[in-house]
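re: that chain from earlier
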Amino acid sequence: MNLPPVVTPQEWDAARQALLVKEKELTRARDALAAQRRRMPRMAVDKDYLFDGPSGPASLRDMFDGRRQLIVYRFFFQPDVDGWPDRGCPGCSMLADQVGHLAHLNARDTTLVFVSRAPQDAIARLKKEMGWDVPWYTITDSFDADFGVDEWHGTNAFLRDSDGIFRTYFVDNRGDEAMGGTWAYLDITAFGRQEEWEDSPDGYPQTPPYAWWHRHDEYQGQGATSPRTGE
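^ sequence. v structure.
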């Protein structure tokens, strides 16, 4: 193994400062890309999609759970996937392990859900066994094919505006690697992090940074109906 050299603390700090310049450039570029994402055109969702949920049939609108934004991750858990019926897709399972506390997303008027082709009894068993709390629905129609997730995992973002539902963004392949944390999810939504420093179109919801941040059990009245699951 060809390891880098051992240096003095001063040399190490100088090397770190040089990389920090590039890291800051990457952060600013990521922020600029998110600003472009918030200006993406919207695609109207005209079909009435139907899912099975833990409480019975549910529409796409139902999955918003009263919030304005919805993030839907296509988790591969079905008979033709390795590990069935005891396990879900290894990559999808790793992503599920990375998901942060849902109360923070809920506080930004955003709901995260998983969808699969597995029946609800199998989903409930797997959730309990793996300790996952994300609301999880069963696909019953062409939702996966229509939104690019019939053959591979992917994350779709939707916005509920008045009586309409709109697809606002989509990531898959390595784009899903970053998913799991609150900021990564918010950065792919139509409204972003909703903080005043962001470059967003006029009229977008924004509040001061830090001011809305709370411990996950202290979000009462800020969009988190349940402190853990959002249900």
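The beta strands are 43-44, 50-53, 56-59, 69-74, 110-116, 136-139, 154-161, 164-172.
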